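As a warm-up, study this chain.
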Amino acid sequence: ATAMTNYIQLFGNTQFAQGLDSLWDLVRALNKYVDSQAPWTLFKQGDTTRLGTVMYVLLSAMRKVALCLWAVMPDASRTLLEQLGQQPGEGPVTTSLEAEAGNFDGLQPGTEVAASSNLFPRIDVKALQQEAPAEKAPKAKKEKKQEAPKAASAAEGQSGEISFDQFKAVEMRAGTVVVAEKHPNADRILRLEIDFDEGQPRQILSGLADYYKPEELVGKQVIAVLNLAPRKIRGLMSNGMVLTAEKDGKLSVLTPAAPVPNGSQIA
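Now compare it with the structure written out below.
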């Protein structure tokens, strides 16, 4: 109930990454529940009464997860609900997530469910590596031939130069900070929500807490790199990097010389 309640509140505040992370607290708890209850052992022991309770708890909780995920993974949620004997049709089989969070009901005892499910199969890396061994051998030989000239070039320049194409691949845009607050689990990190004209603010975590009070950044235009891979920092996701400059041990955020429309590309 707590995980769902937090999910609903965070999504209502457009804090989508934090909301999903809160929902995953429920998923992690279900994993622990499976390990601790060991339904396979209950089956071998013939304890069908306890086994039925454990399976109902798991399947009912999975239904709650599917309902919450409908907003971001509708196809997977629909499939999971169908496997749980639900009939979602064009929408989730509930009228209120708030009501769902207040109880553990929703899955009718005796409902027939799918015999098996593999919505999110694990990737077998070893199997993928063995699929085309003949194709990989020539590539390895070519890379060895190129090692010597690459090393020589690096030793001569030591400049850390990048190509123009590499520079063009970096997406830098200007945006306005609409929310700034301390990271709940890291004293030196600020959690920023920045408007880049993407339809909703983007969450970026930045180590600026020693140099700015949160209220000093709200309303300020900053420049950030947007196409970095998302990174989880102390439980929160960061979707980009705010650019800064250092002088005398102090960091200052980079800003446009004059106000520009949010989302303007920096070239």
